[in-house]
Amino acid sequence: EAIYKRIAAGEVVVNPASVVKELVENSMDAEATAITIEIAQGGKELIRVTDNGVGIIAEDVPLAVQKHATSKIRSLSDLEQIETLGFRGEALSSMAAVSRLTIKTRPHDSVEGTILSVSGEHRPEVSSAGLAEGTTVRVENLFYNIPARMKFLKNTARETVNVTSVVSRLIFANPHIAIKYINNGKVIYHSPGNGSLKDAVIAVYGKDISHRLIDLEYPGEIAIHGLISRPDFLYKGTNHICFFLNSRYIQSRNLQAAVLRGYGERLLRGHFPFSVLHVTLPPDRADVNVHPGKLQVMLYDEADVLSAAEHAVRAALEEDSK
Ligand code: ADP
Ligand code: MG
């Protein structure tokens, strides 16, 4: 059983970046409006995510680290959404199996909070304490008990880059949540959480980018909104184009090609625009129900989405050059 648990952990916990993504998504599910992400040594030594969400009541804390324990399936109709939203009750149990995990949590209407510590095969230790409202999850020494997995981790610089790109996508996907990102004690990003995508982008790219951006609004059943760069502001060789489908980060070569077609002759060879685009589709026209770790999605009527993206970009550029 113990070994099975450790192997199964490979599903959602593959590296520090995947731990960060799962923890932040839990904080968002808990309706947090402010989330702090801290890492040390690329997350290999420490990952800590603190939120001001609803917290976990004392008696449920031990359940949270059990396999397939999810509080997010309340009714039969929810069942259809589980896979889609990734509620599989696997993240915390997987982390508990392959790291030293500590949860500190207090719901706003509880006088005391709960602290749970667990590592590997040891039984969880639970105590109560006065804590701030919300939840902090700390993951230390990832894969300390699985040398083969530990060896598979990249060097600190590389793991840091991976975490940083996950965090920047989470910031772009959630402009209404204040997200602070700290690496080795230094604040790297701090988005204000005021709902403005532009302010979220500034938190990651810096203030100078703001006057190089064009707002893009394309309403309709296939709605697209976001920011693209003016054609005189391009990145050479590196790709700064990203997409969110119904607020989830996705990868799509076809969508990227559509954006580039929208720029058309305006693009210099080998250069890429900056672009953060949110595509909103009726949920039944987007199938994100692939593997939770995969970022590719199937779009029904993909051709319609691609032509919407191309037209939206072209129209925004034409409007701006008037
Ligand atoms: P899932 O998110 O699929 O339900 P997880 O293993 O990620 O499974 O989390 C297990 C459970 O722990 C969640 O269903 C939720 O009840 C609780 N939980 C985890 N993180 C938080 C958090 N930050 N705030 C409140 N509850 C949380
Ligand atoms: Mg989760």
UniProtKB/TrEMBL annotation:
All copies of domain DNA mismatch repair protein S5, residue ranges: 201-318
Keywords associated with the record: DNA damage, DNA repair, Endonuclease, Hydrolase, Nuclease
Molecular function terms from GO: ATP binding; ATP hydrolysis activity; ATP-dependent DNA damage sensor activity; endonuclease activity; mismatched DNA binding
Gene Ontology biological process terms from the UniProt entry: mismatch repair
Gene Ontology terms: cellular component: mismatch repair complex
Family to which this protein belongs: Belongs to the DNA mismatch repair MutL/HexB family.
The protein's role, per its UniProt record: This protein is involved in the repair of mismatches in DNA. It is required for dam-dependent methyl-directed DNA mismatch repair. May act as a 'molecular matchmaker', a protein that promotes the formation of a stable complex between two or more DNA-binding proteins in an ATP-dependent manner without itself being part of a final effector complex.
Name of the protein: DNA mismatch repair protein MutL
Protein species of origin: Christensenella massiliensis
Species lineage: Bacteria, Bacillati, Bacillota, Clostridia, Christensenellales
Complete-protein stretch covered: 10 to 331 of 622
